[in-house]
Design goal:
Elements (H helix, E strand, L loop, with lengths): L9 H11 L9 H7 L8 H20 L12 H15 L1 H9 L4 H9 L4 H15 L9 H8 L6 E7 L7 E6 L16 H8 L14 E7 L7 E5 L2 E5 L1
Antiparallel strand pairs: 1-2, 1-3, 4-5
Helix pairs in contact: 1-3, 4-5, 4-6, 6-7
Length: 241
């Protein structure tokens, strides 16, 4: 004889916990969930399917009416930026040390994605990170802003300007979160991307603000480069990163 499903029984509570904690994917087939977890043995497949769908709908409604609910768009810069770093972590071994030793919290998300950890946990980390970086309801979610705020300690490049005269103590540092390219130099296949980046830097060094003479520039590049490339589309210029 098939078991009876109780609305507030142990099985219902266990099912809610699985979905809330992200242990099971809501897109899974109910028959697969029932096969994996022995707690659901003894229930008719139709009975379990009914309560599976009912519980998913109930939890979705709760989330959508929660004042603290944050919607994550997987195609938005806060999502795609960690995915880029996750790919570097997964496929380029030397970069793993960079990610593991960085104090920028965006790497926590990237590592969790690369290690195929709980997706719900990763989404919570993304939402938490964005809430710390941007004011509520004032999130300018463009890639440049995400890179600028989430990778403050890991910019693409830093420039140190020093006066060419030894007796002048002028020195300043310029942080470049992302780099541009010389559009007249770059080719369609990006084969000369390195040259296009260097050609985009100004030919003339800025003058020393103290003695008005020339300055010497030292550039230090990071282990990653976020590059801003204008892309022509439908007669307009778009930015691609």
């Amino acid at each position: 004889m098939n078991k009876m499903w109780k609305g507030n029984g142990e099985e219902q509570q266990f099912l809610e916990k699985l979905l809330k904690d992200g242990v099971v994917n809501p897109s899974m087939k109910p028959s697969e969930v029932q096969r994996i977890y022995p707690q659901f043995n003894g229930f008719a497949s139709a009975t379990f399917r009914k309560h599976w769908n009912k519980t998913k709908a109930m939890l979705d409604a709760t989330a959508n009416h929660n004042d603290n609910f944050v919607e994550i768009d997987v195609h938005s810069p806060p999502s795609t930026s960690p995915q880029i770093l996750a790919a570097a972590y997964a496929y380029f071994e030397p970069y793993r040390c960079v990610a593991l030793n960085s104090v920028d919290k965006i790497y926590v998300i990237a590592i969790s994605l690369a290690q195929n950890q709980n997706i719900k946990k990763a989404n919570k980390l993304r939402a938490k990170l964005m809430c710390t970086l941007f004011e509520k309801n004032n999130c300018n979610m463009v890639v440049s802003n995400v890179v600028l705020n989430a990778l403050k300690n890991s910019p693409s490049c830093s420039e140190i300007y020093k006066c060419s005269r030894e007796w002048c103590k002028y020195s300043c540092t310029r942080i470049l979160p992302f780099l541009g390219v010389n559009t007249g130099t770059i080719k369609n296949d990006f084969g000369n991307l390195k040259l296009a980046i260097f050609m985009n830097f100004p030919d003339n060094e800025p003058k020393c603000t103290l003695c008005k003479t020339s300055t010497c520039i030292t550039r230090t590049f990071s282990d990653h480069l976020f590059i801003e490339i204008p892309v022509a589309k439908y007669g307009h210029q778009h930015e691609s990163h």
